[in-house]
Amino acid sequence: MLTVEKTIRWLNLFGQKVEEKKVYLSELDQAIGDGDHGTNMARGTAAMKTVLEQKAYDTVQDVLKTAGMALLSKIGGASGPLYGSAFIGMAKQAGEGAADVSAILEAGLEGIRKRGNAEAGDKTMVDVWLPAVDAVKNKELSRERIDEWVKATEPMKAKKGRASYLGERSIGHMDPGAVSSGLLFESMIEEGVL
Ligand code: ADP
Ligand code: MG
Ligand code: MG
């Protein structure tokens, strides 16, 4: 069950984790991309924090939508529109009721897939979102499992995004967007959102 307060705590913890891991996320992106994923994400989550502090929110839908607009306009790169679409998708679904967290996350995944067309195994954030949605449905999301999905992107060959330009050379590195998405799901566990 998501409430306004819980959702804000969840998103602020996500922002805190992104800020803490900013350098690491960019280092990961240095290996298979252009080295900006950490700064992109930190810029987005800082903007998100600001808008979440700016006013009082009445609905979970409004929180997710406003957060999504901030992420969409401030992250930039490929991941900005993807996180933006995830949050806008989640907001729409939250308008139907905030009790079913797995339905909300599923709508977020749908948003990412519609925007980016990535499939399982393409070495993107989808490789974390997809199993996470399933695990939330089955009430078996855990930090250990999140770690497994993130690490599982290491041997994958990138088929989408900048990393795909490297072909075989993308193998052997974790996907930065999978790592940042892992932080989002870890934050859910820690804030007791599930
Ligand atoms: P850019 O590649 O434009 O510099 P970022 O570095 O911020 O953007 O984000 C890169 C991340 O975006 C990748 O690690 C990957 O997880 C994600 N990504 C890229 N393309 C796609 C896609 N088509 N579908 C899902 N995720 C994607
Ligand atoms: Mg990048
Ligand atoms: Mg970039």
Automatic annotation (TrEMBL):
Q: Which residues form the DhaL domain?
A: 5-190
Instruction: Give UniProt keywords alphabetically.
Output: Glycerol metabolism, Kinase, Transferase
Cite the annotated pathway. Answer: Polyol metabolism; glycerol degradation
Alphabetical GO CC annotations of the entry are: cytosol
InterPro entries xrefs: DhaK_L_YcgS (IPR012737), DhaL_dom (IPR004007), DhaL_dom_sf (IPR036117), Dihydroxyacetone_Kinase (IPR050861)
Gene3D superfamilies, per this entry? 1.25.40.340
One annotated GO biological process? glycerol catabolic process
Instruction: List the catalytic activities from the record.
Output: dihydroxyacetone + phosphoenolpyruvate = dihydroxyacetone phosphate + pyruvate
Q: For this protein, what is the EC number?
A: 2.7.1.121
Query: Does the record's keyword annotation contain Kinase?
Result: yes
Gene Ontology molecular-function annotations: glycerone kinase activity; phosphoenolpyruvate-glycerone phosphotransferase activity
Its assembly, as annotated, is: Homodimer. The dihydroxyacetone kinase complex is composed of a homodimer of DhaM, a homodimer of DhaK and the subunit DhaL.
Described by its record, this protein's role is as follows:
ADP-binding subunit of the dihydroxyacetone kinase, which is responsible for the phosphoenolpyruvate (PEP)-dependent phosphorylation of dihydroxyacetone. DhaL-ADP is converted to DhaL-ATP via a phosphoryl group transfer from DhaM and transmits it to dihydroxyacetone binds to DhaK.
The name this protein goes by in its record? phosphoenolpyruvate--glycerone phosphotransferase
